[in-house]
Structure formats: C-alpha cells, structure tokens
Write a structure and sequence with these properties.
The protein is built from 10 helices and 17 strands. With 444 residues, it is an alpha/beta fold. The chain has 2 domains: 315 residues, TIM Barrel; 73 residues, Golgi alpha-mannosidase II (Immunoglobulin-like, Sandwich). The strands form 4 sheets. The protein has an 8-stranded parallel beta barrel with strand order 1-2-3-4-7-8-9-10, surrounded by 4 helices. A 4-stranded antiparallel sheet has the order 11-12-17-14, covered by helices on one side. Bound molecules: alpha-D-glucopyranose (GLC). The site of alpha-D-glucopyranose has 9 residues, from loops.
Length: 444
C-alpha cells in the first residue's frame, strides 16, 4: 500500500467532476413489493441526519484531509492508533438526533480513506482491530437506533485511498478490481447481517476517475463498478433495504433512491449534478451540510441559521424529496454543540408543524415563486415562503372546500378564499410571518 495522496491527486481523485452526460432512464428493474413499501416509508419520513465520522475527525479538517493535505497512506494509517473517542455515547447521539424530528440516521461505515468504522473480518484496518478504542460504534449505534425506533442507513465509499487492489491508476501492479469488488461485497454482507434491519446502503465515489484494468492506463469516469452484483446482493440479504448512489447521474437499474448532493432537486445548486433528470419513480433525497463541511472541521463556523435549515427542509419536501442533514462528530465522539442546538430548534418547529411535512407528497403543483405545496389524505398544505404579490395565492385547479376549511395552520384562524370552475384563490393575511414558513391548511 504505497500509493501516496500526491499521486492520487495527480491522477484525478478529486472532488466530483462536472461533466454533463445524456443517459437513458432506468430500465429493466422491477422493484420488489418489499422495496416499494420501504420507499413509501422513506418518503413519509422526510427528514434524516447524516453522520460523517472517522479517523479523519481527529484532524479536524473534514473527511478529505488525507487527500487535501497529501498525507501519505503509510502515515495516515498510523492515526487509528490514536483514535479513542472517550465521550462517544450512541444513545446520546440518538437522543440528540431524534430531538430534531429526524426519522433516520445515515452514517459513514467506511469513507474514502478506506478505514472501516465497524467490525469487519474483510480488513484489519477497522475501528475494532486498529484502534485503542476497540469498540464497534456501528453496533452501539444500531442497538440505540433500534431501541429508540429510528431508522439506520449506511454510507459506503466505493472509492478507496489506501488499498492496493483498488485500481486508482497509479501503475500499482496489485490493482485488481475483481478482488476489490469481492472485498466490498464481503463488507456489505457484514453490514447487512451484523446490525439488524438497515434502511438503505448509500454509495459514494462513483464519480472518481479510475483505471480500467482491462484497458491499460486510461482513467475513466464512467467505470463499470459491478453494480448489478452489488445491488442484487443488497436486495437479497435484506429485501427492504433500499439502494442509493450519490453518482450524480440518471439512476440505473437496481437503485431505489435518487440522491442530490448539496442540491435542491432540479436546481443543481452545487454544480455536481450531471443530469437534470428527476426520477419520480424513485424516492428522492438531498444531502446538505449544517455548516460547510461533512466531516468535523475546527475552522468552519459557517453554521446555517435555523430558519434557513427549516426553509430548506420545507423546499425539499415541496419537491417530493427528503432532506439528509449532516453532522460531523468530533474526535471525542460528541456531536458539536452548534449542531446539537440547531437540531433541537428544528425539532421544536417540527413538533408543532411536522403534520404538514411527514407523510406528505408534493405532486399537486410544482414549486411556485411564493413557496411549495404538500398534501396528504384529506389535506393540502400551502407553505408560504415569500409573501405573494397582492397577498393572494391562486392554485390552477378548483377544490371542494367548505367555509372555515381554509385556515392558518396552528392557530386555525379561517382565511378567505374564492373558487371558480378552474382555480382556487386564497388570501394570505397581510401580517403573515413568512420568515420561516407560513402554513395554510386546506381541509378537503
Ligand atoms: C461528496 C464528498 C464526500 C461526502 C459526500 C456526502 O461525495 O466527496 O466526502 O461524503 O459528498 O454527500
């Protein structure tokens, strides 16, 4: 394992490339009844918390530190010897995360540094065997999640900055993708057999440039990772486990969730997306950071405000998608106070307003300049994020609604409305506070 990060930097293992590609939509994949039901549950949940935590957390510069600081693998691989998160308490994490109103947790089981944060027989480079901590935090988290009734998902990196068999294209003669794929399948099997029911396996790193073993030294972006085998394995080990892949492309057969990285679906806000396609057949999920980093970063004070975070959640729900909001616990194993506070404040809002988010869908009307619309059995919710012109919202369809059934959510104050054969107009009160989300409930 002699590859240095310098080499990988030269060879293009950089942040996701932005290469527009035109691809065909998903074909030939018929999700099982278990997957269909799990997707509906996932859509109902609407809000999850992402956890980026690993050896890199000790260095406090985000999860890309090995690559960005050109730390040679021989040196980086010594760091686990100092990993002892003495304040790690899975039950506390779960309490803090549950307080936000999140319904599931997605944690990095193994990131690009290749270090496994779970007990694995497939490599000694793991948290139980290579650290003085010697515990399996994923097992502790799984037990706490199952006890508290919150879902658990695993992030899993395809990309690896250390292993010899990973064909990173540095001329390493031991590069052997078939061998690496066997290793990944062994680990995925462990992840799906050691920790009880898992909601989703969330892949990342597909966008890396890789050497095609059979074709000399060409570095390619659209490498054949052997997804058919991986996805079938997941669905066979746990039929309800969903497959997500942060590849920024049109989903391929076997995938159940389309992922948008730092991007409200359809906006390509971070510029990572290589397609404007949105697969409504799949569940949709946007992952976002709470400050500017995924992994713990000491020098990142750019915390987003609670109203901004809530508006993001609402905007995403209004695009029929889920928000996966990240926290990066520190080297001591605790979630930074700035994150805990924001999660708690979001939870307060969700406790009061979650009825208009959880279990809803957003397929009635596309996002409007004033906000978004969610709906569920017998109810429509207008989420007013900006005061509309003249204070009126006109929906391009009519509704059978009785007097008093259009009201301010929460207070229940009836709001005036007018209907014609073709549309439905609601008057937003002049003093409506849209700084977070002014919600109008329509009872059908
Ligand atoms: C990007 C980053 C990775 C991070 C992921 C989360 O792919 O490379 O470090 O884990 O985004 O969405």
């Amino acid at each position: 394992m002699l590859a240095t990060l310098l080499i990988s930097a030269i060879l293009g293992l950089s942040q996701p490339p932005v290469v527009p590609v035109v691809e065909e939509g998903i074909k030939g994949y018929v999700p099982s009844a278990a997957v269909v039901a799990a997707k509906e549950q996932f859509r109902d949940d609407k809000f999850g918390v992402f956890i980026h935590w690993g050896v890199y957390s000790m260095l406090a510069q985000g999860e890309w530190v090995m690559h960005q600081q050109n730390v040679p693998y021989e040196e980086y691989s010594q760091y686990p010897g100092g990993f002892y998160p003495s304040r790690f308490d899975a039950a506390q994490w779960v309490r803090q995360i549950k307080a936000s109103g999140a319904k599931y947790i997605t944690i990095t089981s193994r990131h690009h540094d290749g270090f496994s944060m779970f007990a694995t027989k497939a490599s000694p480079y793991n948290v139980v065997d290579a650290t003085p901590f010697g515990r399996d935090p994923i097992k502790e988290l799984a037990d706490a999640c199952h006890a508290e009734g919150i879902g658990l998902n695993f992030y899993y990196s395809l990309l690896d900055w250390g292993r010899d068999d990973y064909p990173r294209g540095d001329g390493n003669p031991k590069a052997d993708y078939a061998h690496y794929l066997d290793f990944m399948c062994e680990q995925i099997t462990e992840l799906l057999t050691q920790y009880g029911p898992i909601g989703c396996i969330w892949f990342d790193g597909d966008w890396a440039k890789i050497k095609k073993p059979e074709e000399g030294k060409d570095l390619v972006v659209d490498f054949d990772w052997g997804y058919e085998r991986i996805y079938k394995l997941i669905h066979s080990l746990q039929p309800s486990c969903l497959v997500a892949n942060n590849h920024h492309r049109v989903p391929i057969p076997g995938e159940d969730i389309q992922v948008f990285e730092r991007d409200i679906p359809g906006e390509n806000g971070a510029g990572y997306s290589r397609t404007s396609h949105i697969s409504q057949d799949l569940a949709l999920e946007t992952c976002k950071t709470l400050n500017d980093n995924w992994g713990y970063n000491l020098k990142d004070p750019k915390w987003k405000s609670v109203p901004d975070l809530l508006r993001t959640l609402v905007s995403i729900a209004g695009r029929n998608a889920n928000l996966l909001l990240n926290v990066g616990p520190g080297p001591d194993g605790t979630i930074p106070a700035g994150s805990v506070e924001r999660l708690a404040a979001m939870g307060e809002w969700m406790a009061a307003n979650g009825e208009s988010i959880y279990g809803t869908r957003a397929t009635l009307l596309k996002p409007q300049p004033w906000g978004v619309v969610t709906h569920k059995e017998g109810k429509i919710f207008l989420h007013v994020l900006e005061m509309p012109e003249n204070g009126t919202i006109t929906l391009p369809f009519t509704l059978k609604v009785k007097k008093g059934h259009v009201k301010a959510f929460g207070s229940g104050t009836p709001l005036p409305f007018k209907k014609t054969k073709t549309d439905f107009t609601v008057q937003v009160p002049a003093d409506a506070d849209c700084s977070t989300d002014y919600i109008i409930e329509i009872d059908l």
